[in-house]
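job 3f2a | input accepted
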Amino acid sequence: MSNPLSDLVLGFQGLVEDVPDLVQPIVVALAGAVPFIEGEGAAAIGIIGGITPVVAAVAGAIGNLICVAVVVLVASRVRTAVTTRRGAVEKPVTARRQKFERAYHRYGTPGVSLLGPLLLPTQFTAAALTSTGVSPARVIAWQAAAIALWTTVITLIIVGVIRVAA
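job 3f2a | predicted structure (166 res):
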């Protein structure tokens, strides 16, 4: 039985190999916008597809960051609309929400942003941070740092593995 995420990754890899060189970074950026693929997965797709590692990493990170910025801006508007609506009723806090809030109080925006990708896609973490009232600029800044960090680390690992295997 096929896995939808692995099918998506293989589809992006095939697309990178099939399109002209000038378009390849755009495909990698689009892959970076997909939750669970993220900038680091997109960089791997690009590198395996034959793109220079730096170009693949930058393209993947940019695609991921653009998607995260859109999510943050939309979540911020939704939060503002919900919190300013007259007669808004507080929803009961779910167990998942309590778990996130405990992590947030323990690690703050920097910690949740930098460690979040180990558990959740950056889009989910960014939306959760924004929904708690963290300013969109702060969320985007820390998510950008996390995306840059994780994309760089994974890119360096992939390049190292390829060099060792060659």
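job 3f2a | The helical segments are 4-18, 24-32, 38-48, 53-84, 95-115, 122-131, 136-165.
job 3f2a | closed
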